[in-house]
Design goal:
Layout: E1 3-7, H1 12-23, E2 27-32, H2 40-49, E3 54-57, H3 63-72, E4 76-81, H4 88-93, H5 95-113, E5 120-126, H6 150-168, E6 173-179, E7 181-183, H7 202-210, E8 217-220, E9 232-233, E10 235-237, H8 238-253, E11 261-266, E12 272-273, H9 274-285, E13 291-294, E14 303-304, H10 309-315, H11 323-337
Parallel strand pairs: 1-2, 1-4, 2-3, 4-5, 5-6, 6-11, 7-10, 8-13, 9-14
Antiparallel strand pairs: 9-12
The structure holds uridine-diphosphate-N-acetylglucosamine.
Length: 340
C-alpha cells in the first residue's frame, strides 16, 4: 500500500480527496492544523470508507515539526498539498499572513520531499492564475495575468517555486491542478464544505439562505456582457475534483509525465451563470430562493470556464457529475448539518 501525505486533509477538497485515495487503495496520512477545519471531519471520512487515516495535528509553518514529521514518515510515496489560507478578501487586508502561510509551508514541504526516495507532488492551484482570460474556454497556455489579490499571487508564485525546483531536481515530479469553482459535497452527506462565518462563495450562500441562516442572496451584478447579465463560472463537483488528484498521483507514480512539472485545468468545460446556478438549486431542492440583484462585487471577472482537453486526453480524467448533482449534494449536506 503506497503512503500518501495529504496536507489540509480535513478541509473541503482535502477530505473528499482522502476518501477517493482510500477508495483506490492508498494509505493516507493527514496533516491539518485545524485552523479552518474540524476534527469531526475525520469521523465523516471513516464512516464513508471504513478506514482510519493517520492524523497528525501539525502546523506546517513550524519548520522543525515538518522535519520531524518526515523523519517519522520516511516512506511517503506522494504528497498532495492543500493546506493554505484561501479567503480572497482577507488576503488583501493581511498580505504578509498569506505570503508567509502559503509560501513558507510550500518551501518547507518541498525541502523535505527532495530528501525522499520517491517524490510525487501535487499542488492545489487555481484558475485565478488566469485572471480575466482573453479567450474562452481557457487553455493551460493562456497567459498568467497579474494577480488580483495576495491569495491569487500565492498560487502564481507557488507554481513558480515548484517549476524552478523541478528544473534543477529532475527526480522531483510535480503537477499543479488549476481548479475552477469547486462546489457540492459527498453523496453520503458525511463530509462537505464548512464555511466559517458568512460564506463568500456563491453555493454555500445559496444553501444557507435556503436553510434560513441568511435572509436573501445578493446576485452581484446583472449588467455583465453575458446572455442573462450575470457572471459565468465553471462549477466543478468536489467529488470529480477529488478524483482528478488520484489520476494525477497515478500519472506521477507510474512515470507517465511528459515533463517533471505539468499543469492541468480541472473544470467541467461548461460555463454557468449565477442565475443558472440559482435555477439548478431551485430545481433539485424544490424550494424557491430569495434573491435580489445588487451591485457588482469588486474584483469579479465576467467569465471563466475551462478548456478540459488536456486533462481529458493526457490525464485521462473527465468530470462525470452535473451542476444539478452538485447542487443537490450541497443542499443535502446543508440540511444534514442544520438538522433540517
Ligand atoms: C472565488 C475566488 C477564487 C477561488 C474560488 C473558489 C475571488 C475573486 N476568487 O472565485 O480565487 O478559487 O472562489 O473558492 O474571490 N456571487 C454572487 N453572490 C454571492 C457570492 C457570489 O452573486 O453572494 C457570484 C460572484 O459574483 C461570481 C459567482 O457568484 O460571479 C461565483 O462567486 P464565488 O463563489 O465567490 O467564486 P469566484 O469569485 O469565482
Amino acid at each position: 500500500m503506497k503512503k500518501v501525505l495529504v496536507t489540509g486533509g480535513l478541509g473541503f477538497i482535502g477530505s473528499h480527496t482522502v476518501v477517493e485515495l482510500q477508495n483506490e487503495g492508498f494509505e493516507v496520512v493527514i496533516i491539518d492544523d485545524l485552523s479552518n477545519s474540524s476534527i469531526d471531519v475525520l469521523n465523516g471520512i471513516v464512516s464513508i470508507t471504513n478506514q482510519k487515516p493517520i492524523f497528525e495535528k501539525l502546523d506546517l509553518k513550524d519548520k522543525s515539526s515538518v522535519e520531524l514529521f518526515f523523519r517519522k514518515h520516511n516512506d511517503i510515496a506522494g504528497v498532495i498539498h492543500f493546506a493554505a489560507n484561501k479567503a480572497v478578501g482577507e488576503s488583501v487586508n493581511k498580505p504578509l499572513l498569506y505570503y508567509e502561510n502559503n509560501l513558507n509551508t510550500l518551501i518547507y514541504l518541498l525541502n523535505e520531499i527532495l530528501g525522499l526516495e520517491t517524490s510525487s507532488f501535487i499542488f492545489s492551484s487555481s484558475c485565478t492564475v488566469y485572471g480575466q482570460a482573453d479567450e474562452m474556454p481557457i487553455t493551460e497556455n493562456a497567459p498568467i495575468k497579474p494577480a488580483e489579490s495576495p491569495y491569487g499571487n500565492t498560487k502564481q508564485i507557488g507554481e513558480e517555486i515548484i517549476r524552478d525546483t523541478c528544473k534543477v531536481n529532475l527526480d522531483l515530479n510535480a503537477i499543479a491542478l488549476r481548479y475552477f469553482n469547486p462546489i457540492g459535497a459527498h453523496a453520503s452527506s458525511k463530509i462537505g464544505e464548512l464555511p466559517i462565518g458568512v460564506p463568500q462563495n456563491l453555493v454555500p450562500y445559496i444553501t444557507q439562505t435556503a436553510a434560513g441562516l441568511r435572509s436573501y442572496l445578493s446576485v452581484f451584478g446583472d449588467d455583465y456582457p453575458t446572455p442573462d447579465g450575470t457572471c459565468i463560472r465553471d462549477y466543478i463537483h468536489v467529488v470529480d475534483l477529488a478524483k482528478a488528484h488520484v489520476f494525477a498521483l497515478q500519472r506521477l507514480m507510474n512515470g507517465r509525465q511528459d515533463s517533471n512539472f505539468e499543469t492541468f485545468n480541472i473544470g467541467t468545460g461548461v460555463g454557468s451563470s449565477v442565475l443558472e446556478v440559482i435555477k439548478s438549486f431551485e430545481r433539485v431542492s424544490g424550494k424557491s430562493l430569495n434573491y435580489k440583484m445588487t451591485a457588482r462585487r469588486e474584483g469579479d471577472i465576467v467569465s471563466a470556464y475551462a478548456d478540459t482537453k488536456k486533462a481529458n486526453s493526457i490525464l485521462g480524467w473527465k468530470s462525470q457529475l452535473t451542476l444539478d448533482d452538485a447542487m443537490l449534494s450541497a443542499w443535502n449536506w446543508e440540511k444534514h448539518i442544520r438538522n433540517l
